[in-house]
Amino acid sequence: MPRIKNILCFGNSLTAGYGLSSSQAWPTLIQQRLHAFRMPYHIINGGRNGDTSGGGVLRIEQYLPDPIDVFILELGINDLPRGILPTQTAANLQKIIDRVKETHPKSRMVLAGMEVPSLVIPREISMFLNDPVVAAFRNIFGEIARKNNMAYIPFLLKGVAGIAHLNLMDRIHPNAQGHHILAENVWEVLSAILD
């Protein structure tokens, strides 16, 4: 009987399932698929609403004592409206990755990238963001994935962002139907690296 392996999904409200029950969030939907395929993996939902990359640097420590066989990192989008520069976001994400590598060197890693749809950034904040900052933010995910040889989901919200009937009333967070699409986006990349 193979050992049950842990998949840590570490992120913000998009991973936590903001506005939904935990059973509707994409990590649980991935767990259901793993069960259906009788794959020996256990999902740990390490999502926290509103978390930033800096918050993640502090928070990752609580998960490190347990085995992490697969690490899915989904953080950074909350940095932009807070005025955190992309260079700092990139540095924070790298710190998180480095800590997981130090404690679990055999862990396989996945990075979930983000685009910056205008609807994600409140109007009162968007006027302070210039094109170079937004472009730099978009680029950090692919660069970090390449640098660390991580499997890469280019845009977690692909097929969901900006589509009203797939999001909650805030037009930012996916609803239950939207999370099914997020699960597909994750599974397409994750399934390729699982045993």
From TrEMBL:
The record's annotation in InterPro entries points to: Ester_Hydrolysis_Enzymes, SGNH_hydro, SGNH_hydro_sf
UniProt-listed PANTHER family: SGNH HYDROLASE-TYPE ESTERASE DOMAIN-CONTAINING PROTEIN (PTHR30383:SF5), THIOESTERASE 1/PROTEASE 1/LYSOPHOSPHOLIPASE L1 (PTHR30383)
Q: Which organism is it from?
A: Rhodocytophaga aerolata
What name appears for this protein in its UniProt entry?
A: Arylesterase
Matches recorded under Pfam families:
Lipase_GDSL_2
Domain SGNH hydrolase-type esterase, which positions? 9-180
